Amino acid sequence: MTIIESIRDTATVLAKVQRLLEMTEANGCTENEAATAASKVQELLARHNLNLAALENAKTQTAPVYEKRERTDAGNAFHGWQRNLMECITNNNFCMWFVVRIGERGKKHQVLGRAVNVKVSIQTYEYLCGAMARLNPYKGDRKNASRWNDGCADRLVARLRQQRYEERQQEILVAGGLDEHSAYYVVRGVEVPPPPEPESAKERRERERREARYDRRYARWQARWNREEEREALRREDPAYVRGQEAGNDIGLDRQVDRQEHEQLN
After folding, report:
1. Which helix (H) or strand (E) holds 134?
2. 247-260 burial string, b = 16+ CB within 10 Å, else e?
3. Which residues contact 30 (CB under 8 A, 6 or more apart)?
């Protein structure tokens, strides 16, 4: 498979990743739906990482200089392990990363890049941090919990860098004419197994049915979210609501004491 064919084939994958990234609790999904979507994003990224990298490389050759970039606040960056992990993830996803200070000691991640790359970076970071929080055995022991986080994050960073190195070597081999299946195993120093059997008509129908079920579910979620947005817009446009907002501007936030009562007390 050539790089151009790879780009064409992963266009639908990128669209699915974009839709999954929108399925969050903030957008009206249940906690279980959001967790399932996050898991699916990681599965798609793991399965198509090479293709997504090839797609990104091809885009950079033709992307206009005025293409919009998104700068996003990506949460707390107080600990060194948090900064190391986010820096590695954003580098792998073609984003810029930096830290801004909040107050005297606070620090926040800032991620700059194409919208989909920023979202994938943040999604990956939050997924890994959540996994670390669940697995950390030193809950309640701040000192050891911090050391455990340091060790775990360092190992994750090493694995992410190795993964990205292998992806780049795969790209070189595929560009040189080697098929993607063989390139995957050659880079990792493993004997190349026989290529997978082509998808049968029955398997294709099963896959299409699964994708159709997912699309119907996503369409229902999107319709529900749109209805909620419309109701919220109507609520805010209601004349009584607007008058209440205006009155809220005129009410003082400090408790007022009647002047005469104040003088009597004194």
Report:
1. helix 115-135
2. eeeeeeeeeeeeee
3. none
